[in-house]
Amino acid sequence: MEDQAVDHSSCGLSSACYLLAGEEIPIPRWIEPLRPRSYLDGLLRLGKSFGNVLWKARGDVTAISGQGVKYQNGGIEYSSEQILGRSLLWIAHRQPVLSVTGDTPIANIVATCGCDVDPRPLLQLSSHCSVLAFANWKGAPAVFQFGRCDRAIAEIRRKARGLEIGASDLSLRALVPRSLALLTPEHGGVVAVEEKKVGVVAKFCWDRMDAILEVWCSSGGPTQEPARANLGEELDRISKSLQAYSPFLRETGEKLLRWHAGRKFSGEVTHGDLWLGNVLFEGERISAVLDWEWARTDGLRLVDSIHLLLMSYSEFRNAPIGEFLRQVWSDSVEESELSSRLRAIQSRYGVEDEDMKFLTLLLWFDYLGQNVFSGRVPRAAWTQNMIAHTIPVIERWLSRH
After folding, report:
1. How high is the pLDDT of residue 89?
2. What CATH number is given for 201-400 in this structure?
3. Which sign, positive or negative, has the C-alpha torsion 311, 315, 317, 321?
4. 125 touches 72 (CB < 8 A)
5. Please, where are the H alpha helices in 11-72?
6. Rounded mean pLDDT of 227-247?
7. CA–CA separation, 73 vs 314, rounded Å?
């Protein structure tokens, strides 16, 4: 994977600028995902922003600002009116400004995404490669996901397919956004349109965890497929792609396959990235489950449930999830509320302690696989925590097994 690494750090911003200006926009060097190292450095960056506006503030110009311009995530605010005044306001808030020539932003977004003009489309970067536009589709609130590079196109198509998989489970259909369209603009790229669900991402609390678990564990049923029938092929691809860790991955993958072969689980419709951040609430009621990119029909709901608990709690604690995976394998889960819920789902599915550890190992391989299969290049800190620090803990557990 490292040999074929491609820098996608500005893909999302490039796509956003394309939607706004209707043309290729070179991203200035000063727009980097780096915080200013000093106050002087910050002033210099803002000065460059202001100079950019003064230079281009003539004719058909759009000014773009927001944290998304600087850090390549979050929302983007744009304006084609009162550019100098708006830019001064953005600069006063220490936000860089990028100005581009071209048609009006709304015209370009409508032409590319096919959304309605009213209300005004709202842009947001959803990842390094893709951009979200919130607008109406044939009079109904919708989410448009736009991407132009190969990675973004593949991700958007996976998400569109995932919505179909999620909706195939009748017990979940009301929670899954409807896929409305998959478009291919003339200039290339892809646009996926889906229903915009009502609700908000709620703050972490254990009652909400229980509500999601109840929905997830009580709904659905086995599909016609054996669970993870292609697991061997997936593990082989992961070990080949992460060559620095290949010997360990191959040996551990073989042990996981032997365990899997002896369990004969039935496949289920699973989400693949279930956690609190992908669930919308209206009050205390679950209104939607989002981001079905890694959905599958041969998955295990128990793995989804483990991920829900560990990922949601790690985000709440602002700690790497690898820390809590390691606690499972070493029988050292420190948080009593987390431990009790892991025990509860274990009892509900009728699996033994060692089965829970192997299911967590399957979840760990899925984390690695999602990076490999999507072409992502993990950050060094993620690799260190998720792989280098985790391998010794897995080895100690398996040596006792």
Report:
1. 79
2. 3.90.1200.10
3. positive
4. yes
5. 11-21, 39-56, 67-71
6. 95
7. 21
